[in-house]
Write a structure and sequence with these properties.
The chain is an alpha/beta fold. It has one domain (4-198): P-loop containing nucleotide triphosphate hydrolases (Rossmann fold, 3-Layer(aba) Sandwich). The protein has helices at residues 16-27, 37-43, 52-76, 90-94, 99-105, 110-114, 142-155, 171-186, 191-198; strands at 4-10, 31-34, 81-85, 119-123, 162-165. A five-stranded parallel beta sheet has the order 2-3-1-4-5, sandwiched between helices. It is globular, with a radius of gyration of 16 Å.
């Protein structure tokens, strides 16, 4: 198959990391993962400053890093399904200014950003009792995570092949639905065909 990209996104503690690790074990070389740019930068020492300048420069760095890793992974794995741990429009949810300002700064548009990804999978933030606080990079409390989850969902509005997996109390079911989506894509199924298996 020709290289196809899916962005796996969602709110904090949505299960992205768990899902992506499961996909690597389940599908092996059929999928290639683009790691989360924010984690790479913050773990590497990029300053985390919670004011306008901090968010502005951090998201500029994250956006640029995201795109370059995606290009590298796609160029070196032309026959794989490219699974991106977050996508370019996630930066919009963290942007400290207006949506118009975001697209102007990056000289892009919503249409161009949506078109980068053939598919989109959004994993909602877990319920409060299941909210994971062990991730050292994560700084949001549960209520902040819920707001971010909605901002991220709004950032990706308009994608024609988006799946949203809710915060199911049964985490195994949530992961099972997500894995079935990836399996369907690998098997060449249409959006409508896959949707019937996860709804």
């Amino acid at each position: 198959m020709k290289s196809v990209k899916i962005a796996v996104t969602g709110g904090p503690s949505g299960g992205k990391t768990t899902l992506i690790e499961a996909l690597k074990k389940e599908f092996g070389s059929q999928v290639k993962v683009v790691p989360e740019a924010a984690s790479i930068l913050y773990k590497g020492g990029f300053p985390r400053v919670k004011n306008y300048a901090g968010y502005f420069h951090a998201q500029k760095a994250i956006y640029a890093t995201q795109l370059e890793i995606e290009l590298l992974t796609t160029d070196t794995n032309p026959e794989s399904l490219i699974v991106c741990d977050r996508g370019s429009l996630d930066s919009l949810a963290y942007w400290p200014d207006t949506e118009e300002h975001f697209f102007r700064i990056f000289n892009t548009s919503r249409e161009k950003e949506l078109a980068r990804y053939s598919w989109l999978l959004h994993l909602d933030t877990a319920h409060e009792n299941d909210y994971d606080t062990t991730n050292a990079v994560r700084t949001e409390n549960f209520h902040e995570a819920l707001m971010l989850n909605e901002k991220i969902k709004k950032s990706w509005e308009g994608h024609p092949q988006r799946f949203v997996i809710g915060a199911a109390s049964d985490f195994i079911t949530k992961m099972g639905k997500s894995t079935n989506i990836i399996r369907g894509i690998l098997n060449g199924k249409s959006y409508d065909e896959i949707q019937t298996t996860v709804s």
